[in-house]
Amino acid sequence: QVHLVESGGGLVQAGGSLRLSCTTAERSYSHLNYVMAWFRQAPGKEQLFVAAISWSDGITKYADSVKGRFTISRDRAKDTGYLQLNSLKPEDTAVYYCAADFNNGLMAATRPGVMDYWGGGTLVAVSP
């Protein structure tokens, strides 16, 4: 129902940066209270929480592993969320997924099972 589309992934060297984008594909939901979150999944590993943002007030939450390196933000006028990836490490290599939760709050966004809608993912590959 709510279509999310990620972009911005690619191949970078360790220490480099990327900016991922997540947009709603068909319409604006900026008038609603929801949480946009990012998760990542490396091959053969579990899906892990990365960051989340409350769309209405901009309050953010981060996984400890990315604090100080990644920054989540949103542009409500563009119906677009961003994840700025800095100081990338090889262990950051994964498919990054954008997700949205319309039923719970920011504190619950660390759990992928809470999310209502998902994008198709964008690959981030970090070489040594």
What does the model show?
This protein has strands at 4-7, 10-13, 18-24, 35-41, 48-54, 60-62, 70-75, 80-85, 94-101, 117-118, 122-127. The model has no long low-confidence stretch (mean pLDDT 95). It is mainly β and 128 residues long. The strands form two sheets. Strands 2, 4, 5, 6, 9, 10 and 11 form a seven-stranded mixed sheet that branches. Strands 1-3-8-7 form a four-stranded antiparallel sheet, with no helix packed on it. It is built from no helices and eleven strands. Strand 4 (35-41) and strand 5 form a beta hairpin.
Helix content: under 10%
Q: Tally the helices: what do you get? A: 0
Structural class: mainly beta
Rg over alpha carbons: 14 Å
The quaternary organization reads as single chain
- According to DSSP, the number of beta strands is 11
Tell me about the biggest sheet?
Answer: 7 strands, mixed
Give the overall shape: globular
Mean pLDDT: 95
Poorly predicted regions are: none
Rounded to the nearest angstrom, the distance between the terminal CA atoms is: 39 Å
Order of helices and strands: EEEEEEEEEEE
Strand portion, in percent? over 45%
Question: Topology, please?
Answer:
Elements lengths: L3 E4 L2 E4 L4 E7 L10 E7 L6 E7 L5 E3 L7 E6 L4 E6 L8 E8 L15 E2 L3 E6 L1
Parallel strand pairs: 2-11
Antiparallel strand pairs: 1-3, 3-8, 4-5, 4-9, 5-6, 7-8, 9-10, 9-11
What brief labels describe this structure?
128 residues; mainly beta; seven-stranded mixed sheet; four-stranded antiparallel sheet; 0% helix; globular
